Amino acid sequence: MALLTPFNKMPELNTANILLVENEEQFQTKLADVIVNYEKQINVNVRLARKLPLPIENADTRPRIDLVVFIVNLIYERSLQAMESSIKHLDSGFFVGKVCFLVTGARCGSVSHERLLSVRKLAASLHCPMLCAEDQTTEGVRAAALRLLSIVKVSAGLVPTATALYLSALTRCTLPAELDQD
Amino acid sequence: MALVHTNFYADTGASAKQTESQIIHPSERSVHNEFSDEAKSELLDECEKQFSQLQKLQNEILLADTESSDGESSEIVNRLSALSAELEQWQETEPKLMPTNPEILLAVGKEELQTLNTQLKMVLSSAQVKRDALKDTLKREQTWLQEKKEVLNAVSEKVSELRLESEGLSEHSVLVDMKRKIQTVKDYQSRLMDTLSDMLTDHFPLPEEQANTSKRKRTALPDPGRHLISLSEILELLTNKTLESPHEPYVTMDESFWPPYTEMLLRNGIATRHPEDSTKIRLENFY
């Protein structure tokens, strides 16, 4: 199965599944811990991956994924490239509100501005939200986890009267006109 | 049913790790314990219906997926069709009524009220915190205002004083001012002297009464009290001598100086003895 598809499995009761994709595998474990320990009302399954495509042998046991989060560390050029290659293995059905970009290291002064800009452009072109997170402090991880939780609840259909598409129409990343031209 | 499994594991094949924790779901459990069979079966029916509907839709999705899997369409078109479909869906949706079983309604209402209660509690506590913070700020601002007012008062007083001085700076006014100051100092001095003499008469009486109390002593000592002078007179003598002849401030003691008082003056450093003549004392220099 080359493509990860969003609707090929039955959803489970009171369950949300979130897939964290990070090439460096540093931030995702911390984030997963906080997400799992914070949410008590519903089941949240966090799955971790370095890159897409996911291995075929897990395909049967893998639940339906409600939200794919690409974690990009701006300090490493490789992180950005890995994310760009991973994104090709997602079914287009995910891009109606089930994909989210999480950028870390944006505050580091030595990071080139172009990397952040290219992530923003990608997010804007795919109509996905882009979140910035602080991965060094506990509060930063907690804040990022809470934001992801509120998104995944909507995209898993656990919030009445809200849908993933509706939310993503409001939270999608936009570029200012002058940046869009160059 | 009351247990919730929360897990995350790596989706990378061989290195899969699994963490599992079990959490009791409080609201779910209470709901299940309270319901009668009738209500339970009604709810279960409802669930069954929803689930079969879900399965039907899922099958449709899978069929549609296999049909249009090779259809390449751009992201924006996808999005547009999804949005319009969702819009249509929303317009068609009728608000669904809840089951009319009073037990279910009661449970749902209870849960709603409890959520509302916790939310309102949070609002209350945050409002209280905010109010306290505002109170603190108000207090600080008021103290600050008070201080500023005091500063303003002091400065304006100073300004008016300086203005008066610069306006009425004639010879006469200086004279009057000086006279006033001298008068003040004189008043102060006389007050001090009064206090001193009161204190001395109160606490340092002459030893006449003691002599009167015992007849035997009176006969034994040939009435020394008659010639004695009071402590205030001693001090006056000393002071006058110091002021009148500063080059020779020593006073010669005679039998009218009661020895305990001179001793007290010497011991407390108010007076000093002449280095060569032990009958002479002078007032200590206090300047």
Notes on the protein architecture:
The complex is a heterodimer of chains A (182) and B (287). Chain A is an alpha/beta fold and 182 residues long. Chain A has a single domain, classed as Rossmann fold (3-Layer(aba) Sandwich). In chain A, 36% of the residues lie in helices and 18% in strands. In chain A, strands 2-1-3-4-5 form a five-stranded parallel beta sheet, sandwiched between helices. In chain A, strand 1, helix 1 and strand 2 (43-49) form a beta-alpha-beta unit. In chain A, helix 1 (27-38) packs across helix 4. The longest helix of chain A has 18 residues, at 138-155. The mean pLDDT of chain A is 85. With 287 residues, chain B is mostly helical. Among the domains of chain B are: 1-67 and 100-126, no CATH class; 204-283, no CATH class. Chain B has helices at 26-34, 37-67, 75-92, 102-167, 171-203, 208-213, 215-220, 231-244, 259-267, and strands at residues 3-10, 19-24, 251-252, 271-273, 280-283. In chain B, strands 3-5-4 form a three-stranded antiparallel beta sheet. In chain B, strand 1 and strand 2 form a beta hairpin. Chain B starts with a strand and ends with a strand. In chain B, 6% of the residues are buried. Mean pLDDT of chain B is 78; it is low at 1-31 and 213-222. Strand 2 (43-49) of chain A pairs parallel with strand 1 (3-10) of chain B.
